[in-house]
Amino acid sequence: MEYAKQPISNDTKVSETVKTDRLYRVEKKDIEKLNSLLTESFAKDPLYLNLIPQAEKRQKLLPELFSCDLDELFENCEIYADSPDLNGIIIVSDESEPYNPLKYYAIELFYALKTNLYLIRDDHSLKTLWNFIKGKAYLNSEWTNDLHTDRRMHIIYFSVRPSMRGKGIATKLMNAVRDYADENRLLVSLETHNEHNVKMYEHYGFHLFEVVQKHFSLKQYCMVR
Known about the structure:
Blueprint (H helix, E strand, L loop, with lengths): L23 E2 L5 H12 L3 H6 L3 H22 L1 E4 L6 E7 L6 H22 L4 H8 L17 E9 L8 H15 L3 E6 L4 H7 L3 E6 L7 E5 L1
Parallel strand pairs: 4-5
Antiparallel strand pairs: 1-2, 2-3, 3-4, 5-7, 6-7
Helix pairs in contact: 1-3, 3-4
């Protein structure tokens, strides 16, 4: 999944990297557990049901696609879990942090090509690849350009293992990030493709900024706090 990250000027005041002792900082040694959690959590997400409608292909492709995603996210984002067991995770990009644009876009291009190779290999008809091309607007966060601020954090992924929902894990994860954002006066943005999640995010103080719909009946709900 792609996401927008804007360069910042040298005179922009930047916040420190997200620091919290309330969450477990996920490391590369946890990548198998992290991939498993994401695959389980998003197996029936409307985004992937539209992009990979065939259940058998979706079951095979999702772990591979998340593997590509996670390699890139470890390079550019911060990944936190409720505990070393990884029953829930929140992946954030601190848009107020300075970065090297050349390195960032080179990494993004490499993993985009790697993802496309998986899609072509597992579907020679290219239908799945075409779905991802058509669904590009759903796979990035370019809508955040309209927010016109670098004082922002973006939540890339937020999920709790289905069997562990209702135990306060989501609130633990979100509260830690919200508190950090409030302390540093940062806007927080995210998107969801599941309409049922909108009320949950409203409960956490987010409001709907816009709805993106292109090529599919699928809607992307863009939210800010």
